């Protein structure tokens, strides 16, 4: 092995001497580079080879290459770049090849090799690496990267098209490949048109007219290749959402380029989904997308008046299609599409008078649908938000909202998110406290008592809202603790995360609202309630320290309380956690060094045997670096 390494090092000497000759590196630096390379070469030839050794060697050589470039730019001598960099670049390539042959399954390694080769502008070599990589890793996203590279960086449309076709033969079920292939053909069409515009700018009118006529009948010019892609794509997947994605891609291009492709897609959708509400939603929205395309890709920028006129015309056409569809279907889904369209339009409306009129129209329409029970829950929530935002201070509006919320609770009695929404709104309305409190109790005490991993996040928000509202309206300590006790009962059968969340959070809340005595009482009554939480005990330590800092005296009392809390920690978690013993010892070092020794022995007796060595090492470090802590504790 030594002979092989020596031969390799001798091969580097001549190349490195060139760097010294151009005064890029000193003699000592060259010796250091040789020494480092020797070390790496020996590591690569071990019997048990480590990928990290290969990666470190590559990283070292890449850093060396960067340093050479920096010093070459700063040098006053005329230096041939290829002469000083070529050997290092070849060395890095050899290392990548050697490493990849050993660890072919490492995709990030392949991609690093590609990134390096791109940085050297070795684009033909990048193509070869991609080709080798996809033979080993036949993944759809790698095929897409390969095709994108060929089209965007090598400007090779034909090669990119062949790659897409090859990718589809391996992954005919990949929706992403079909969509990107479709996008590619549209980009290719756009590219051809831009070239044509540049070429024909200098032509005479007669010549340009003749070419225009020929181009208008050309399949590629009109996006026929993209249409072929779509036709084959829907044979592999007949899903509606899959087809709609092609339409969304069309909206990113000039309407002239995608006109025939859009017509093909819409005709296909009508044939296959003409009796579906989603199809009519797409048809109606298409009018607004067309308006945006015309504004974005107009040959001559449109004036504000022209844009508004075009937008209004498209909006009216969309409304007409929606109203016709709603009349034909007369169901909740179609009306939801229509209302969502009207709500989205509000965000683009800047004129306050027009905005107020549109809001009134939407509120009136939804109210009619509400009475006919043709409204989905999401639309209901948006309706309530509109009513509240427009007339939140009006007494009649508040009474109207109160009635509607009661009806909604009866209409969707088992919907947890709805009742949370109602509770949020009720807490903002000027309603009697007892009414709001009764709603919370009916919902959380009787209707929604089961917590699982699916509804836990909503239940946490619901209970948190109840507690925050109770505090904000200055409920008595007795009433708030009644709520907390009920919450604790719910948490017993809930996922552990819910209990840990509330036990720690409530500790801080009670401290700030009711003081230290109530906080200590809450801690004592809950510290052994399952699940026992380390963060709960640690938060109590923070509370005690904060309280002590607020007092003029009480340092001795604090030490005793912290000692008790440390005892709680080691009692429950002392077998598996080294850090809590170290924290306990650190505390005792600042209080009474005599007790540190017995505490150390106790830790060794209680800790799991596999953790004792770690504890001894960290304890020794603590002894050598210990100094009394003066950190301020914040809640």
Automatic annotation (TrEMBL):
Question: Has keyword Magnesium?
Answer: no
Q: What is this protein called?
A: U3 small nucleolar RNA-associated protein 6
Where does the U3 small nucleolar RNA-associated protein 6 N-terminal domain start and stop, copy by copy?
Answer: 9-87
Q: Which family does it belong to?
A: Belongs to the UTP6 family.
In its UniProt record, a GO molecular function of this protein is: snoRNA binding
Single GO BP term: maturation of SSU-rRNA from tricistronic rRNA transcript (SSU-rRNA, 5.8S rRNA, LSU-rRNA)
State the superkingdom.
Answer: Eukaryota
UniProt keywords (A-Z) are: Nucleus, Repeat, rRNA processing
> Where would I find the U3 small nucleolar RNA-associated protein 6 homolog C-terminal domain in this sequence?
318-590
Q: Name one GO cellular component term.
A: Pwp2p-containing subcomplex of 90S preribosome
* InterPro entries assigned to the protein according to its UniProt record, in alphabetical order: HAT, TPR-like_helical_dom_sf, Utp6, UTP6_C, UTP6_N
Where is this chain's protein located in or outside the cell?
A: Nucleus, Nucleolus
């Amino acid at each position: 092995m030594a002979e092989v390494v020596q031969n390799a090092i001798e091969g580097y000497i001549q190349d490195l001497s060139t760097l010294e000759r151009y005064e890029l590196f000193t003699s000592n630096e060259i010796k250091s580079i040789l020494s480092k390379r020797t070390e790496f070469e020996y590591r690569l030839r071990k019997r048990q080879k480590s990928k990290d050794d290969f990666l470190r060697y590559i990283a070292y050589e890449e850093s060396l290459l960067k340093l050479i470039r920096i010093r070459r730019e700063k040098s006053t001598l005329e230096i041939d770049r290829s002469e000083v960099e070529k050997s290092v670049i070849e060395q890095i390539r050899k290392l990548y090849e050697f490493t990849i042959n050993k660890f072919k399954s490492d995709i990030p390694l392949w991609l690093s090799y590609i990134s390096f080769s791109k940085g050297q502008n070795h684009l033909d070599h990048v193509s070869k690496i991609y080709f080798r990589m996809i033979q080993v890793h036949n993944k759809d996203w790698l095929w897409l990267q390969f095709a994108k590279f060929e089209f965007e960086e090598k400007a090779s449309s034909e090669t990119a098209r062949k790659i897409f076709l090859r990718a589809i033969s391996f992954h005919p079920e990949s929706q992403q490949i079909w969509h990107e292939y479709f996008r590619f053909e549209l980009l290719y069409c756009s590219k051809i048109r831009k070239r044509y515009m540049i070429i024909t700018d200098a032509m005479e009118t007669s010549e340009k007219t003749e070419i225009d006529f020929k181009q208008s009948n050309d399949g590629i010019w009109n996006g026929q290749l993209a249409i072929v892609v779509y036709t084959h794509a829907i044979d592999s997947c007949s899903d509606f959402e899959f087809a709609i994605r092609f339409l969304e891609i069309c909206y990113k291009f000039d309407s002239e380029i995608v006109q025939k492709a859009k017509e093909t897609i819409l005709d296909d959708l009508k044939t296959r989904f003409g009796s579906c509400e989603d199809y009519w939603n797409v048809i109606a929205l298409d009018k607004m997308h067309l308006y945006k395309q015309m504004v974005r890709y107009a040959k001559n920028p449109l004036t504000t008046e022209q844009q508004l006129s075009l937008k209004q015309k498209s909006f009216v056409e969309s409304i007409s299609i929606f109203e016709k569809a709603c009349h034909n279907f007369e169901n909740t889904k179609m009306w939801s599409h229509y209302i969502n369209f009207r709500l989205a339009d509000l965000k683009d409306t800047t004129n306050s008078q027009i905005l107020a009129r549109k809001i009134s129209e939407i509120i009136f329409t939804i109210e009619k649908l509400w009475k006919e029970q043709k409204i989905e829950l999401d639309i209901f929530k948006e309706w309530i938000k509109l009513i509240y935002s427009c007339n939140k201070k009006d007494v009649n509006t508040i009474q109207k909202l109160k009635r509607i919320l009661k009806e909604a609770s009866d209409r969707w009695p088992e919907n947890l998110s709805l009742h949370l929404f109602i509770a949020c709104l009720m807490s903002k309305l000027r309603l009697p406290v007892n009414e709001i409190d009764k709603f919370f109790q009916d919902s959380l005490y009787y209707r929604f008592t089961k917590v699982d991993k699916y509804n836990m996040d909503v239940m946490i928000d619901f209970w948190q809202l109840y507690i925050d509202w109770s505090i904000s309206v200055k409920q008595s300590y007795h009433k708030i603790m009644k709520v907390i006790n009920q919450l604790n009962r719910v948490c017993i059968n809930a996922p552990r995360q819910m209990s840990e969340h509330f036990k720690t959070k409530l500790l801080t809340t009670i401290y700030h609202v009711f003081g230290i005595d109530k906080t200590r009482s809450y801690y004592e009554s809950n510290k052994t309630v399952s699940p026992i939480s380390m963060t709960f005990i640690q938060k109590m330590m923070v509370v005690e320290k904060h309280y002590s800092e607020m007092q003029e005296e009480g340092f001795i009392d604090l030490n005793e309380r912290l000692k008790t809390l440390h005892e709680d920690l080691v009692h429950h978690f002392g077998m598996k956690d080294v850090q809590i013993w170290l924290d306990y010892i650190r505390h005792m070092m600042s209080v009474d060094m005599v007790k540190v020794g017995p505490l150390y022995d106790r830790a060794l007796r209680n800790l799991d045997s596999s953790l004792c060595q770690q504890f001894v090492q960290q304890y020794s470090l603590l002894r050598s670096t210990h100094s009394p802590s003066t950190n301020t504790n914040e809640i």
